[in-house]
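Renewal narrative, Specific Aim 1. Our central claim is that a sequence can be written position by position from structural information alone. The example that follows is taken directly from our test logs and has not been curated for this report. It begins with the structure tokens describing the chain, in the order in which they were read.
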């Protein structure tokens, strides 16, 4: 299971506000954690954190998770002091009414409540109209535009207000496990490998902008030119009522990370990961991505001369909500599997397919 240091790192990571394009606070948490374990570490002009543990060979392996979370940005303040927003990433608008949010103004949070017209005021139609983002507002307790503008401004970023909690001895509930999970795994692997003599060069990357532009994974991979890259992201579970496993496969919490099979993946990498999981009794699951994966892998695999790609998913219930649920067992199994994979690699790895 996770050490107390690693648990605290994960909690600090998910708690740090980092909507897509504004990842600075989360990246500081990542830098502070990685400094003792990396041979080199830097933060590039896009905000990616790239840490390196040097090996004795030439092969380069990159493990990447994205540090950005979904969020909002203030777009308009009306005469009554209500705040209107645009999204940073994808949202289910129907989930939003009544939620608490934090608006970050000059680095300090201002609490707000997402409001909409009550159902009692929507008489006259058989069904309420389909909810749109512009039908919602954020109430910060201001009684006028002038009062609101003393507290927030156009361009301020917004995140869910959500407390980190243990739902059980293993299950964690928090905002932003998508995809602080992947960042955690990349960094924890670096810690796991600190005293190992590697043949390959290991790059742990905390990328930016995955939820909106994918720029972080693209530009960091361009710099590194990895031979092998593993994108670690969250993936949907099908262990909930009504989920059709004929469509979504069979993925559950606490049964291990999901190794993704599909057209974008390099079969030799997946074969090695599965063989190691079996040999070391590390639990794992399988999921299918026939084409694009919806992860950083989509912009890494075909850069320059190409990268041998794998995607590992951390099972996640209630994704893109303020109360995502993940398993510490799954996180730890992903770290152990990837660390074993990197330790096993040498320059003569067979990339034929």
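The sequence written for that structure reads:
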């Amino acid at each position: 299971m996770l050490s107390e240091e690693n648990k605290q790192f994960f909690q600090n990571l998910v708690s740090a506000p980092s909507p897509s394009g504004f990842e600075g606070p989360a990246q500081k948490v990542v830098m502070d954690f990685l400094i003792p374990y990396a041979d080199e570490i830097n933060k590039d002009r896009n905000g990616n954190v790239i840490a390196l543990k040097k090996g004795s060979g030439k092969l380069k392996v990159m493990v990447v998770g994205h540090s950005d979370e979904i969020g909002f940005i203030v777009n308009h303040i009306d005469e009554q002091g209500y705040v209107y927003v645009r999204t940073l990433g994808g949202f289910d608008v129907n989930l939003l009414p009544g939620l608490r949010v934090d608006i970050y103004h000059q680095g300090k949070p201002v609490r707000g409540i997402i409001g909409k017209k009550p159902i009692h005021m929507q008489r006259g139609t058989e069904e309420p109209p389909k909810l749109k983002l512009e039908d919602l507002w954020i109430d910060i307790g201001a009684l006028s535009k002038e009062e609101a503008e003393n507290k927030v401004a156009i361009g301020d970023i917004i995140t869910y207000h959500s407390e980190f909690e243990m739902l059980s001895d293993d299950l964690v509930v928090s905002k932003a496990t998508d995809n602080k999970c992947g960042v955690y795994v990349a960094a924890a692997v670096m810690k796991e490998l600190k005293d190992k003599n590697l043949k390959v060069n290991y790059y742990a990357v905390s990328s930016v902008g995955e939820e909106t532009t994918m720029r972080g994974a693209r530009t960091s991979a361009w710099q590194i030119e990895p031979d092998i890259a593993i994108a670690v992201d969250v993936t949907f579970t099908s262990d909930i009522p009504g989920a059709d496993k004929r469509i979504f496969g069979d993925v559950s919490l606490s049964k291990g990370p999901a190794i993704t099979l599909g057209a974008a993946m390099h079969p030799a990498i997946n074969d090695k990961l599965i063989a190691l999981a079996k040999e070391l009794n590390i639990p794992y699951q399988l999921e299918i991505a026939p084409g694009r994966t919806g992860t950083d892998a989509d912009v890494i695999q075909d850069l320059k001369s190409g990268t041998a790609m794998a995607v590992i998913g951390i099972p996640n219930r209630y994704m893109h909500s303020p109360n995502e649920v993940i398993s510490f067992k799954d996180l730890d199994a992903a770290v152990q599997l990837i660390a074993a994979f990197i330790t096993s690699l040498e320059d003569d790895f067979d990339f034929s397919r």
